[in-house]
UniProtKB/TrEMBL annotation, chain A:
Belongs to the adaptor complexes medium subunit family. SUPFAM superfamilies: Second domain of Mu2 adaptin subunit (ap50) of ap2 adaptor (SSF49447), SNARE-like (SSF64356). It is a peripheral membrane protein. It is found in: Golgi apparatus; Cytoplasmic vesicle membrane. This is AP-3 complex subunit mu-2. It holds the Pfam family Adap_comp_sub. Keywords: Cytoplasmic vesicle, Golgi apparatus, Membrane, Protein transport, Transport. One of its GO terms (biological process) is vesicle-mediated transport. It comes from Scleropages formosus. It comes from the Eukaryota. Its main location: Golgi.
From TrEMBL, chain B:
The keyword Transmembrane does not apply. Belongs to the adaptor complexes large subunit family. InterPro entries: AP3_beta (IPR026740), AP3B1/2_C (IPR056314), AP3B_C (IPR029390), AP_beta (IPR026739), ARM-like (IPR011989), ARM-type_fold (IPR016024), Clathrin/coatomer_adapt-like_N (IPR002553). Subunit of non-clathrin- and clathrin-associated adaptor protein complex 3 (AP-3) that plays a role in protein sorting in the late-Golgi/trans-Golgi network (TGN) and/or endosomes. The AP complexes mediate both the recruitment of clathrin to membranes and the recognition of sorting signals within the cytosolic tails of transmembrane cargo molecules. AP-3 appears to be involved in the sorting of a subset of transmembrane proteins targeted to lysosomes and lysosome-related organelles. Coiled coil: none annotated. The keyword Metal-binding does not apply. Residues 635-688 are annotated as: Disordered. This is AP-3 complex subunit beta. Residues 662-685 have a biased composition (Acidic residues). Residues 644-661 have a biased composition (Basic and acidic residues). It is found in: Cytoplasmic vesicle, Clathrin-coated vesicle membrane; Golgi apparatus.
């Protein structure tokens, strides 16, 4: 399966290598570098690259390429999914997954990689098991370790892999027993220039942070489970129970994990919580263009729209802009032509706007591309789909846990407002 | 110096710089030789950091390998890392470490055994092959499933080290395939795939078990198993879509095809095929994209057409994942959309392109959108494409124009619209856009040139401005090909081209020559001189292709005495009608590769790829998958756990580390019992007595131990109970292919005799499955046999005459029953908990028959599960009038509780209640309509005396049931 792994940073240096079978020379990465050069953008490097003797399957996360070397047939998604799992694990262990963090913790990284794959086949990928095998580094422990010479490796041999619930470590004890659930929804929409929605969909996740002693068995029910059109679960969720009763029943892993991802079908009308009014014009023969943009909230059930960030890729012909924001700050990169405006919070009484002029290349003809406007935002205490958790119950343990549920809505990775474009004369 | 990078603490930096100047790694050797673990650890950390950076640390081998037996776990682990990395280069020295691992293999702790095997098998030294082989064989029969899993992992390692061991390894694989734990299943199938994927015969006996374990296997194992089972199914089952493809194939052969369909037996899916589809479906909800993709490809390759649709939603969900995942999923969706367009049509909008998508994703989405285009959605798609053309990503714009071209060729209705749109693009300011449009327009025009001479004229004018060689070449070709449509412009274009000939790109030059030749043949008066001029220029061109072409053309078109017979046909050669190019998807026919595979993605066979076999013409013997099912009793594992508990009860008297060992034991035993829970076919050499022993031991413990253990036992009990439910449910709903012997074959009753039915024979039986749709109905399976020479049509139920309260759910009408054929349907009847008959008429298209179904009392109930205590409690509430007791003498063949259980269960649809006494058998169920409890107790006494007690609120049912059971037992 996975033969070797190379980590490559953004300047093209291999800063870590790990082999699970015979050693593969790092020169195999030359094929990767070639592909990298051909690609216009970092994210356009093909995830699968065939070379004469190997196949390279890579993912790009946090500006690091994780390049796996494969020798024979294996489902590409198997490798890709695994590599992402590696990144998630690093993030879980070190807080961030950067070149510096990996280099600083190279021994832990190596120990992790050693446990995650055996002969190239995944062995232990559950965070709870790994944490029993290899304790995550903390500042305190690092200090203690250097003084006492003790180690990060678990003193006792882990039993997690042998347990009935392989995702949960055993012998968990807390003085405060708490379970927090965050319902986070993302809206993903495309709006055309007239303001009508082309597509809109809501994706949501329930991220949990469960710190409960022993072996708690939880059930979580919704007021309106029918909203959930398509779901995918953490392996701990009992599928049969969901099928029959639409109840999430599970023995949770210890710590942070993603319980559920769901999708609210686009058949249900999605109300987009913000609107954009804009007017971007270029006149033929003039080296000036006008830029006007106003934002406003709609259907937010009285909740504030926060952390609003507007960005737009202006046409190549634009040399510079001279804009005046009513609030927040804006930046324009004359090289990439990326305009971004950090709006902050929308005050419904005084709508934020960004107005001014753009200077165009002298003599250049009127650009005919449509600037796309992307909007990021957050709304606390609201799940836009209306999903509501009904109750959370715990069985199997006697103590009374503290339970908390939080809702949040934000714009998706690719948020609304595409081809929100200037009306062409 | 260069050391500081790898995170060494400050005090070492100085030393290191010094060292790197003088002797290499002496300090590290010193540290490794020291007595302090902390120094050893520091040294090992630095060495591992070197390995991580790809630096050579092989000269430290002797110093490191000495520490293989170090007590400190972290040092030990890092030494293992080092050893595995360098053993291949230092084989002799590596042998020094072997004895440590051999000792580890015998350790009482399963985790140490496993890790010793893991490292031992990772040391790539050929000399130790026999040792590895031995270790693997031993570990494969280890008590701990975790060690067995490690053994499975070791198999491919040994195989790659020495392929000659294949035969022996296959034996181990065979043994491990029979393993019933989820922990082992994924790993052993992975070993199977790497060592002997061709030995499909090893799977037969394990097929059903693998299907049933699948949902509990870890995610990575699921992927491997699903992919393997896809291949397996392709060799063992029939194509569920065979009939569909026959009738769809040729319209002219319709009659013949229809005849074929009739001749062929109506397709009935093998229950094992169904099992696979049913058990994989829930995994579409997995969080792991690879699992979802594996199920999707399984459905694509194996499911009946009507059922494949379920995968679309799951695949569309994956599109919201990381861009690499999207990339792979889109490639597979692109292939699927060619064969099964309808499946993704509802999700059209999910493939709309977003400005922030990477170009490679955009292009793939475009491909999918193009494949999805049809008459109804094309206008929406074209509107969407129009916005894409305005994108700033030029590669993407070019791909969009190509896509428009493909839509235009595939959908005749929009050809003109597309063409007009593309012509408008010719005035686009971006040259690349124009060039791409020209190329696409050229292809479209070739389909119907006569209608579009104005477009050709328009394009001819473009030659003045457009510089992109491919576009210029396309225009020239068009003008030459259709010169009779533009008789005035063509010579003028040639004139201009002759002027610029020397500055043109090669592909343009070739087309100039083409144009010249065609014009010479059609309009030699105006172009003779020009052509000769061009040919002369080409004669001295630097490119030999062009020189060659010029010579060839001259010989063909300019008749000389030397030129042979060919020149007579010059016109036919040059102006032959050329077929329009077919614009097709690069993903066409890619589905001959298994979807989701690397080979499919690359459209080339990758090493180790296993071909997806074609469906067999006729199904191989399905009985190869039958596994002998013996009387299900509680398995060995439960037994083990009970002995452990006994151990514990003695242990608890010793104060020494009690809590520790207890928690560990609990861990182990609960694992094992949970494994047995998931087992479908239990190992069955243990008999009911053993089970009783377990129960006894539990109850003894219960009285002996304090409260701390009570909880534990209760937990154990719950697991045991749920295990029994699984077993019991299995016996009470026998499926025809794996009828558990507990209830024997289903009794069949006659509904309509062959003679009264005038050739139509109808029988029925009570299938004892819950009737889908209404839990208060008894399902009745009805089998029609057509013994006549003619078809029976529209078989259905008519005018049921029912007692008040009774209801019938009719079976769906059978359209046609060809002569000699058998058809089975299921209907539901609510008998209102009475044995009154249900009367109705059975109709064919010509006749009506009055029929009656009267249920034996035992079929009016369904099994429920109860514990012994619950049973006793319920029984206590059903005393007096509700209790009926009869004494009897057991029949000749009725010896042993095994037979008693079987007879009772075949008489009445009840389930067994686990029970602590050897003299008693208890059964529980409830009536189907009202859900009243039915409790049966059979007590055996000395000789053959016995006593049957039935407790039931419905006295009538109770009385009748006692009678039936008496009869069954005294036979």
């Amino acid at each position: 399966m996975i033969h070797s792994l190379f980590l490559v940073n953004s300047s093209g240096d291999i800063f870590l290598e790990k082999h699970w079978k015979s050693v593969v020379s790092r020169s195999v990465c030359d094929y990767f570098f070639e592909a990298q050069e051909r690609a216009s953008e970092p994210e356009n490097v093909p995830p699968v690259i065939p070379t004469p003797h190997h196949y390279l399957i890579s993912v790009l996360r946090h500006r690091i390429y994780f390049v796996a070397v494969i020798q024979s047939e294996v489902p590409p998604l198997f490798v890709i999914e695994f590599l992402h799992r590696v990144v998630d694990t690093f993030q879980d262990y070190f807080g961030v997954c950067t070149e510096a963090a990996i280099k600083d913790n190279v021994v832990v990284v190596y120990e992790l990689l050693e446990e995650m794959l055996d002969n190239g086949f995944p062995l232990a990928t559950e965070s709870n098991i790994l944490k029993e095998l290899i304790k995550p580094p903390t500042i305190l422990r690092t200090v203690v370790n250097t003084i006492t010479g003790s180690t990060n490796v678990g003193e006792q041999l882990p039993t997690g892999q042998l347990s009935v619930v392989p995702w949960r470590r055993t012998g968990v004890k807390y003085t405060n027993n708490e379970a927090y659930f965050d319902v986070v929804e993302e809206i993903d929409a495309i709006i055309d220039k007239s303001g009508s929605t082309i597509t809109a969909e809501i994706q949501g996740v329930i991220d949990a942070c469960v710190k409960l002693s022993g072996m708690p068995d939880l059930t979580l029910s919704f007021m309106n489970p029918r909203l959930l059109d398509d779901v995918s679960f953490h392996p701990c969720v009992r599928f049969k129970r969901w099928e029959a009763e639409r109840i999430l029943s599970f023995i949770p892993p210890d710590g942070n994990f993603r319980l559920l991802s769901y999708h609210v079908s686009s058949q249900n009308l999605v109300a987009i919580p913000v609107y954009v009014k804009h007017n971007i014009t270029f006149r033929e023969g003039s080296s000036q263009g006008r830029f006007e943009l106003t934002l406003g909230p709609k259907q937010t059930m009285g909740k504030a729209v926060e952390s609003v960030l507007v960005s737009s890729q202006l046409p190549r012909g634009v040399l510079n802009v001279n804009l005046n924001p009513s609030q927040g700050t804006y930046t324009f990169d004359p090289v990439t032509k990326l305009l971004s405006w950090d709006v902050g919070k929308i005050n419904p009484q005084k709508l934020p706007s960004l107005k001014g002029s753009m200077s165009l290349q002298a003599g250049a003809s009127k650009p005919d591309e449509n600037p796309t406007i992307n909007i990021q935002f957050k709304i606390q205490q609201m799940a836009i789909s209306g999903l509501k958790v009904n109750r959370l119950d715990m069985y199997g343990e006697k103590y009374k846990p503290f339970k908390g549920i939080k809702y949040m809505t934000k714009a998706g990775k690719v948020p609304e407002g595409r081809r929100d474009e200037a009306a062409l004369p | 110096g260069r050391w500081s990078i790898c995170g060494i603490t400050g005090n070492f930096t100085n030393i290191c710089v010094k060292i790197s100047l003088s002797c290499r790694h002496d300090d590290l050797k010193e540290m490794l030789d020291s007595n302090k673990d902390s120094l050893k650890l520091e040294a090992m950390k630095r060495i591992v950091a070197m390995i991580a950076r790809g630096k050579n640390a092989s000269d430290l081998f002797p110093a490191v390998v000495k520490n293989v037996a170090c007590k400190n776990i972290e040092v030990k682990k890092l030494v293992y890392v080092y050893l595995v990395r360098y053993a291949e280069e230092q084989q002799d020295l590596a042998l020094l470490s072997i004895s440590t691992f051999q000792r580890g293999l015998k350790d009482p702790n399963q985790l140490i055994r496993a890790s010793a095997l893991r490292v031992l098998s990772s040391i790539r030294v050929t000399i130790i092959v026999p040792i590895m082989m031995l270790a693997i064989k031993e570990a494969a029969s280890d008590m701990s499933p975790y060690v067995r899993k490690t053994a499975a992992h070791a198999i491919p390692k040994l195989y790659s080290l020495d392929p000659d061991q294949k035969d022996q390894l296959i034996e181990v694989i065979e043994k491990l395939l029979a393993d019933k734990t989820t922990l082992v299943a994924g790993s052993v199938v992975m070993a199977f795939e790497e060592v002997c994927p061709e030995r499909i015969d090893l799977i037969h006996k394990n097929y059903r078990k693998l299907c049933n374990l699948l949902i509990d296997v870890e995610e990575w194992g699921q992927v491997v198993i699903i992919n393997m089972l896809t291949r397996y199914a392709r060799t063992q089952f029939l194509n569920p879509n065979a009939n569909v493809s026959v009738s769809a194939e040729g319209k002219e052969d319709k009659v013949e095809a229809a005849a074929l369909v009739v001749k062929r037996k109506p397709y009935v899916m093998d229950p094992d095929h169904r099992l696979l589809l049913r058990n994989t479906k829930p995994l579409l909800q997995s969080r792991n994209a690879a699992v979802v993709m594996a199920v999707a490809q399984l459905y694509f390759h194996l499911a009946p057409k009507a059922e494949v649709g379920v995968i679309a939603k799951a695949l569309v969900r994956l599109m919201r994942s990381h861009s690499e995942v999207q990339y792979v999923v889109l490639q597979n969706v692109a292939t699927m959309t060619i064969k099964r367009r309808g499946m993704f049509e509802p999700y059209l909008k999910s493939f709309y392109i977003r400005s922030t998508d990477p170009t490679q994703i955009k292009v793939l989405k475009l491909e999918v959108l193009t494949n999805l285009a049809n008459e109804t959605n094309i206008s929406t798609i074209l509107r969407e494409f129009q916005t894409y053309i305005k994108s700033m990503d030029k590669d993407f714009v070019a791909a969009t124009i190509q896509a428009i071209g493909r839509c235009a060729t595939n959908i005749g209705e929009v050809r003109d619209t597309c063409l007009n749109g593309l012509v408008q693009l010719l005035s686009n300011r971006d040259e690349l856009v124009v060039a791409e449009s020209v190329v696409v327009i050229k292809k479209l025009l070739q389909m119907q040139p006569e209608k579009h001479s104005d477009i050709i004229k328009h394009m001819a004018k473009l030659t003045d401005n457009i510089q992109v060689p491919m576009a210029r070449a396309s225009i020239l070709w068009l003008i030459g090909e259709y010169c009779e449509h533009v008789p005035k412009i063509a010579p003028d274009v040639l004139r201009k081209m002759a002027k610029s000939f020397t500055n043109e790109e090669d592909i343009v030059k070739l087309q100039i020559l083409n144009l010249a030749a065609k014009l010479y043949l059609t309009n030699s008066k105006q172009t003779k001189l020009l052509t000769q001029y061009v040919l002369n220029l080409a004669k001295y061109d630097q490119n030999y292709d062009i020189r060659d072409r010029a010579r060839f053309i001259r010989q063909l078109i300019v008749p000389t005495d030397k030129s042979g017979a060919l020149s007579k046909y010059a016109k036919k050669l040059f102006l032959a009608l050329k077929p329009a190019p077919v614009l097709e998807s690069p993903f066409k026919d890619r589905d001959h590769f298994q979807l989701g595979s690397l080979s499919h993605l690359l459209n080339a066979k990758a090493g180790g790829y296993q071909e997806l076999p074609d469906w067999p013409e006729s199904a191989p013997d399905p009985s190869v998958r039958n596994v002998e099912v013996k009387y299900p009793t509680c398995s060995m594992n439960i037994e083990q756990s009970s002995t452990e508990e006994q151990k514990k009860s003695t242990k608890s008297k010793e104060p020494k580390d009690r809590s520790d060992s207890e928690s560990e034991d609990e861990e182990e035993s609960s694992t094992e019992s949970s494994e047995s829970e998931s087992e479908e076919e239990s190992e069955s050499d243990t008999d009911a007595k053993k089970k009783k022993k377990v129960l006894l031991s539990i109850s003894i413990n219960h009285t002996l131990q304090g409260t701390s253990l009570r909880y534990y036992i209760l937990k154990k009990w719950r697991i045991y109970v749920s295990f029994c439910v699984a077993l019991l449910l299995k016996c009470s709903f026998p499926s025809p292919q794996a009828a558990s012997p507990t209830c024997g074959p289903l009794k069949t009753y006659e509904l309509l005799h062959r003679i009264t039915g005038e050739g139509l024979a109808v029988t029925y039986c009570f299938s004892r499955r819950p009737f889908t749709g209404d839990p208060h109905m008894v399902s009745v399976q009805i089998q029609f046999t057509n013994n006549t020479e003619v078809e029976a049509r529209s078989l259905r139920v008519l005018e049921p005459k029912l007692q008040s309260g009774m209801r019938i759910a009719e079976f769906p009408e059978i359209d046609v029953l060809p002569p000699g054929e058998i058809s089975t349907v299921v209907m539901g009847i609510d008998f209102c908990d009475s044995t009154q008959a249900a009367n109705f008429q059975l109709c064919t298209h010509t006749k009506k028959f009055f029929v009656t179904i009267q249920p034996p009392v035992g079929e009016l109930m369904m099994p429920i599960f109860m514990t012994e205590n619950e049973f006793k409690k319920e029984q206590g509430q059903l005393m007096g009038m509700n209790e009926i007791t009869e004494k009897l003498t057991l029949g000749e063949g009725c010896r042993g509780d095994h037979v008693i259980i079987q007879r009772v269960i075949s008489t009445a649809n009840l389930s067994r209640v686990p029970c602590g006494s050897a003299m008693e058998c208890r059964f529980a169920g409830k009536t189907v309509t009202s859900g009243s409890l039915v409790l049966v107790t059979v007590v055996t006494k000395e000789e053959r005396a016995a006593q049957v007690t039935v407790n039931c609120e419905k006295m009538l049912i109770g009385t009748m049931l006692v009678k039936d059971i008496l009869q069954a037992l005294s036979q």
